[in-house]
Write a sequence for this structure.
């Protein structure tokens, strides 16, 4: 299986983590949606990453891909709860992370810091400050309350819900704005318990190296 995506995309991260957790062999291919290959539109008419190719089968969208991987490789690590309410809740938290968290973190923090610099523009501190103080706390408090004293968002084990939330929050970590454990004790404990899993540790190391290279390139451009 080939996973086409970009290293700092939270949706690519969700799919890569799912594959690693499930022990699926795959090849990771870098695809920058802003400098796409010619066949990008035929792979995904929405022109977004991630996309997988599994033999002759091509599939886009992280949620569709995670559903496909679960149907094909339920064992050894299931990532969707079996119990109906827990299953529904997992899908809801996945959706919450993919839409609400993504919007605030991507538009409000990641782009104003990193994409601006990649494009040679100054960091938009005002947008970052506004997001961190006004928009994002609402999202994070909701997730904090969802967890209360549970280890996982849905059911009694790690699921796609946990990987989805974690995958979005990693971009806050890269930006140096991971929320504090004082304000969000359950959410940050949840983040850390995923961060130390072998799958996530390995991936984070390669992402940090990649981001470092990108930032070095930018500072080289400036001097
Ligand atoms: N619902 C999609 C969202 C994918 C998405 O928005 N990917 C971003 C990268 S994080 C992208 O490809 N953006 C390119 C663009 O907006 O043109 C999924 O879950 O895969």
């Amino acid at each position: 299986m080939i996973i086409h995506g970009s290293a700092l995309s939270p949706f690519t991260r969700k799919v890569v983590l799912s594959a690693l957790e499930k022990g699926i062999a795959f090849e990771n291919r870098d695809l920058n949606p802003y400098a796409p290959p010619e066949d990008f539109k035929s792979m995904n008419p929405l022109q977004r990453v991630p996309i997988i190719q599994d033999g002759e089968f091509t599939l886009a969208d992280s949620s569709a891909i995670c559903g496909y991987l679960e149907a094909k490789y339920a064992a050894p690590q299931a990532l969707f709860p079996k119990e109906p309410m827990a299953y529904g809740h997992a899908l809801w938290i996945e959706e919450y992370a993919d839409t609400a968290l993504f919007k605030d973190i991507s538009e409000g923090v990641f782009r104003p810091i990193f994409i601006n610099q990649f494009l040679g523009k100054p960091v938009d501190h005002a947008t970052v400050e506004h997001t961190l103080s006004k928009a994002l706390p609402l999202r994070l408090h909701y997730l904090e309350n969802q967890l209360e004293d549970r280890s996982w968002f849905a059911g009694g084990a790690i699921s796609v819900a946990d990987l989805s939330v974690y995958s979005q929050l990693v971009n806050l970590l890269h930006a140096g704005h991971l929320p504090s454990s004082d304000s969000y004790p359950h959410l940050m404990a949840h983040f850390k318990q995923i961060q130390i899993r072998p799958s996530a540790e390995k991936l984070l190391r390669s992402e940090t190296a990649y981001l470092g290279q990108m930032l070095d390139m930018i500072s080289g451009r400036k001097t």
Q: What stands out?
A: Residues 129 and 163 are 26 Å apart (CA to CA). Strands lie at 2-5, 27-30, 51-54, 57-60.
